[in-house]
Amino acid sequence: MADAIWSSTPAVVGYVLLNVFCSCGVVFASKLVYLNLPFCFVATLTLINTISTWIGMFLVEQLGFYTAASFSPQSLLPLALGFCGYVLLNSLSLSLNSVGVFQVLKIAATPMVVALEAAVSRRLSAGPKGAAALALACGGVGVATGFDASARANLGGVAVGLAAVAATGLYQFWSARKQHELQANSSQLLFAYTPQAILIIAIAAPLVDSYGFREALSAHPLPDTVLGYGYGIRTTSAILLAALLGVLVSLSTFLVLATTSPATYSLLGHAKTVLILAGGCWLFGDSMSWQRGAGVAAAMAGVAAYAFIASQASKPVVAPRRASRETAPLITSHPVDTEP
Questions:
Q1: At what angle do helices 99-107 and 290-313 cross, to 10 degrees?
Q2: How many CB atoms lie within 10 A of CB 223?
């Protein structure tokens, strides 16, 4: 009876809406912290969000969505370092770029992963049609970015965004390789190496952000430091909201994958891209010319076409089972899908 209620249609719709709301919300909340408050301490906010990710993974493990596994610290260190580069560069990209540029550049992560896989295996599994779809996606990203006035005026931010794309691709590529090497799913690995990532970011944060330790000890902290920043209700609420949304992204991702399918989640990813772009225009004043809109549409169509072509090329004889609580992987943008 409980399982029937848990997987009922109203419940599934609720999981989908929760995932969409939280995935979009964590991007908007983080941008609000960076832009409107402003709280420009990227590494510190990334540390808070990474801790919230681990809390979310702990909660879903306690709820039985996957089983934690133990690995040697040495085997997890490359993934922890890759994760740190991925989340830090994406957070920095969000802080430097408009929401629209940040989100459009993230689309290029898919071609990046495929290119890495093709370089290692020396073949493209989806063939010429897949290559054409990826070329369309890359062209769409280029057009959408090139016709964005904020991107043209902020080439440094675009460079950081491209570095974030490279880091995202490398992280996802290494993660897939480690899953095969350690015979573990992505959820088990993420839960296992996140404590290492938290430690690495905690060590790096004072090197990236100005904490003002010396001034704080003298009781005269500087306002442009982490310790001297004027934390009011508005700032604290926004930071805690971003962290809470990060936790809910992890939980809702498991719920969606456990009750629908990876294909449904992939479709939701496109819907979230559209909503985040629309939210960037509405909340933060991003522009959307018809040329830029056409570029976004081409990029999303290219990624969707590649996903379809690749799935057809690797389609098994026996239809795969729907994702279970134990095997459902965590799809991150974070937080940040990982969002940032």
A1: 30
A2: 8
Each residue of 42-63: pLDDT tens digit? 999 999 999 998 998 998 899 8
Q: What are 243's two structure tokens?
A: 């962290």
What single string gives the DSSP state of each residue in 240-277?
HHHHHHHHHHHHHHHHHHHHS-HHHHHHHHHHHHHHHH
Task: State the distance between the two ends of the chain, measured CA to CA, in whole angstroms.
Answer: 38
Task: Give the pLDDT score at 302.
Answer: 92
Categorize the per-residue pLDDT at 340 as very low, low, confident or very high, splitting at 50, 70 and 90: low
CB 56 within 8 A of CB 200: no
User: Between helices 186-208 and 42-62, what is the axis angle to 10°?
Assistant: 160
The pTM score is 0.85
pLDDT of 316 over the 60 cut:
no
**Contact predicate 98/158, CB 8 Å:** no
Question: What are the pLDDT digits (tens) for 136-189?
Answer: 999 999 999 999 999 999 999 999 999 999 999 889 888 888 888 889 988 899
Q: Helices (DSSP H) in the chain: which residue ranges?
A: 2-6, 9-35, 42-62, 73-96, 99-107, 109-121, 127-146, 149-152, 155-182, 186-208, 213-217, 233-259, 262-284, 290-313
SS (H, E, C) 106-161: HHCHHHHHHHHHHHHHCCCCCHHHHHHHHHHHHHHHHHHHHCCHHHHCCHHHHHHH
Decide: residue 166, CB within 10 A, 0-12 exposed, 13-18 middle, 19+ buried. Answer: middle
Radius of gyration over alpha carbons of the chain, in Å? 20
CB-based burial label for 284 (10 Å; 0-12, 13-18, 19+): middle
